[in-house]
Amino acid sequence: MNRRVLTLLVALVPILAFGVLLSVTTVPYVSLGPGPTFDTLGEVDGKQVVDIEGPGADVHPTSGHLNMTTVSQRDGLTLGQALALWTSGREQLVPRDLVYPPDKSKDEIDEANSTDFRRSEDNAEYAALAYLKYPKAVTVESVTDPGPSAGKLQPGDAIDAVNGKPVATLDEFQGIVKATRPGDAITVDFRRKNADDGETTITLGKHPDGGQGFLGVGVLDAPWADFSIDFNLANIGGPSAGLMFSLAVVDKLTTGDLNDGRFVAGTGTITADGEVGGIGGITHKMLAAREAGATVFLVPADNCAEAKTDPQDGLELVKAENLTQTVDALKTLSAGGEPPRC
Length: 342
Prior knowledge:
Blueprint: H1 3-24, E1 29-39, E2 43-44, E3 47-48, E4 50-53, E5 65-74, H2 79-88, E6 92-95, H3 96-99, H4 106-131, E7 136-143, E8 158-162, E9 165-166, H5 170-178, E10 185-191, E11 198-203, E12 205-206, E13 213-214, E14 217-223, E15 228-231, H6 242-252, E16 263-266, E17 269-270, E18 276-277, H7 282-292, E19 296-300, H8 304-307, E20 316-320, H9 323-334
Helix pairs in contact: 4-6
InterPro entries: Lon_proteolytic, Lon_Prtase, PDZ, PDZ_sf, Ribosomal_Su5_D2-typ_SF, Ribsml_uS5_D2-typ_fold_subgr
GO biological process, one term: protein catabolic process
EC number: 3.4.21.53
């Protein structure tokens, strides 16, 4: 064999080996980067992202955008993919254990994220209705299935009376239920969204934590309206869409535009009483918002310091502490005033 060819082949061996190493070897890192954004005033797959339906709903037209933002995650990276993402400057590599704790399976983590997302939808509804001054009711949050109330009560029902005795608060409701025993039959008067008022008789089961009867519902004091609010986004985990969902509900149920026709994006968890909480990946979400066309970004107060470390040209950062303050900030911005900023 020609000495020159042999030298070339010898030189190619480590190059080929390194190429195989890049394409086959996986690394214990996950990449985080800007994810898709969704306009909570718009549609996804032909459905309103925030759909408010019912004869009692006075829904008003909206304009502009109120976009929720997300962080993309890529797992199972090869060494080559990790290096390419890192050098792009758009992605952040973090140890996999920070995203997927080793004491939990990926399915368990995904289920927890889905549960957080569903809870954020409920909180977004309650916060918006509270802001709009809808009265509270003893509200069914969950129904155990199988259980005594399955097929008789459903999430969203407002319980008005038990055995003919009115209940206006959770304490009043629990006081009646605690006095029952397994096998007792109770009559529950309830209101259901987009339906006539109802009455049902439920035979109580055995309570797992004591001698009282088991109704098989989770209830709470919450603002209640006679129309339904549905959030039609699938495969979005975590609670960080709460603020933007609440703002969309408020915008649709009030006259005028909260955003004054602007492209507003943002993020933040929300509690049932309207407090906005911090989230992860704020700088990735800001980049996603700017690339989508946003000019205003709502930043949870707890994330303001981090947000200021990576400002995006043309993107105003408005501080969000709670729902009322955030609505007021958007109104101030629309009027040409100076909202609270990070």
